[in-house]
Design a protein that fits this description.
Elements (H helix, E strand, L loop, with lengths): L3 E4 L6 E4 L6 E4 L2 H7 L4 E7 L3 E5 L4 E5 L4 E6 L5 E6 L5 E5 L13 E3 L32
Parallel strand pairs: 3-10
Antiparallel strand pairs: 1-2, 2-5, 3-4, 4-9, 6-7, 7-8, 8-9
The chain binds zinc ion (ZN) (2 copies).
One zinc ion (ZN) binds next to helix 1.
């Protein structure tokens, strides 16, 4: 497979992924909306051994948006790089917006639609889940 490349807006942090992507979601939870400053955050799931930083590891900053969820972003430009669940740190949820624009991804689905912003209407035909899809434990929200 072709490598997938991504970088933050200021290009200090860059990375590559060497795994076929199977999971792609648009998360409408309030934490993703706020940290991305947009209607939802888009993430692909990558297993830790297949993700490698190529530059900028000294510019990585993190924020714990809940007890288990750690969000990684660039300290210079603020781009969201990924989040992971501290109980499941071997799975990274990488922000799809940081990937090269011609990256090919599987069909996405919407998660946490129950927390969706009232001013955003979902008009596509992708699957919608009120919270997590069944059997999925990635992102963990504080209660
Ligand atoms: Zn940056
Ligand atoms: Zn979310």
């Amino acid at each position: 497979m072709d490598k997938i490349f991504g970088n933050c807006e200021c290009k200090k942090i860059s990375f590559e992924i060497t795994q076929e992507i199977k999971y792609f979601s648009h998360c409408h939870c309030s934490q993703c909306r706020r940290s991305h400053g947009s209607a939802f955050g888009s993430f692909i799931e990558v297993e830790e051994p297949f993700f490698k930083y190529n530059s900028g590891t000294n510019n990585i900053e993190s924020y714990a948006s809940s007890k288990d969820c750690l969000r990684i972003f660039c300290q210079i430009c603020g781009s969201n790089i990924m989040f992971f669940n501290k109980r499941k740190p071997e799975k990274y949820y990488v922000s799809a917006g940081t990937l090269n624009k011609n990256t090919i991804l599987p069909e996405a689905h919407h998660v946490f639609v129950g927390s969706k912003a009232s001013w955003y209407e979902i008009t596509d035909n992708l699957k919608q889940h009120l919270e997590y899809p069944k059997g999925y434990i990635g992102e963990n929200k504080s209660t």
